[in-house]
Amino acid sequence: GDSVTQMEGPVTLSEEAFLTINCTYTATGYPSLFWYVQYPGEGLQLLLKATKADDKGSNKGFEATYRKETTSFHLEKGSVQVSDSAVYFCALRVSGGSNYKLTFGKGTLLTVNP
Amino acid sequence: EAGVAQSPRYKIIEKRQSVAFWCNPISGHATLYWYQQILGQGPKLLIQFQNNGVVDDSQLPKDRFSAERLKGVDSTLKIQPAKLEDSAVYLCANLQGWGGYTFGSGTRLTVV
């Protein structure tokens, strides 16, 4: 079945450090890939997405490139801020029929210290 | 457009009691999902509705969980009787036109 594997957390960085959160996937068919973010006390919000191979999703300084050859969608940011502290979830959705089910990874907690 | 509204935000119950959660989705959005998010894990799909009909409930523990969506709008998720392992955040979501979801803030359930 479809699955998503994220790097284990927690991740603790200093402000302005470079961030990478690894994500790899297994899917039948051709998935769309997503990163969701969950700030403390809030619901899940879409951070960025990519719908086909070699697409790059970007938002708020975060980027991720859909790599079909390595089945990966790693999240990166060049300079993190304290306000980026949150839990980040990688997710995939395989198109087909009416079942647009999102499959999530376990999440990675990021803490950014000033 | 307004977001997905959920209530209550928090609920504490004793095991073997029953509990219900409510979701008011974005107006006009036909597809609604309930997810369970256990602490330290990613959300897991419980049930998907398309208008009033169930599309996927394969991971819903039907001996204790039930859900309905009346008139293709609001939805309720019920647990009866609750177990300790049901402690989690229950998330409601709508499918958006671009293929992603909009989530509500969730209901945090603690079973003691």
Description:
The complex is a heterodimer of chains A (114) and B (112). The termini of chain A are far apart. Chain A is globular and about 45 Å long. In chain A, the strands form three sheets. In chain A, strands 2, 5, 6, 10, 11 and 12 form a six-stranded mixed beta sheet that branches. A four-stranded antiparallel beta sheet of chain A has the order 3-9-8-7, with no helix packed on it. Chain A is mainly beta. Chain A is built from no helices and twelve strands. In chain B, strands 2, 4, 5, 6, 9, 10 and 11 form a seven-stranded mixed beta sheet that branches. In chain B, strands 1-3-8-7 form a four-stranded antiparallel beta sheet, with no helix packed on it.
Summarize this structure briefly:
Chain A has no helices and twelve strands. With 114 residues, chain A is mostly beta strands.
Distance between the termini of chain A: 41 Å
Radius of gyration of chain A: 14 Å
Helix content of chain B: under 10%
Report the order of strands and helices of chain B. EEEEEEEEEEE
- Average pLDDT of chain A works out at 92
Q: Report the portion of residues of chain A in β strands.
A: over 45%
Number of helices of chain A: 0
Per DSSP, the total helix count of chain B is 0
Structural category of chain B is mainly beta
Q: What structural category arises from helix and sheet content of chain A?
A: mainly beta
Shape summary of chain B: globular
Oligomer: heterodimer
Largest interface: A-B, 24 and 25 residues
Report low-confidence residues of chain B grouped into runs of 5 or more.
Answer: none
Number of strands of chain A: 12
Overall geometry of chain A comes to globular
Largest sheet of chain B: 7 strands, mixed
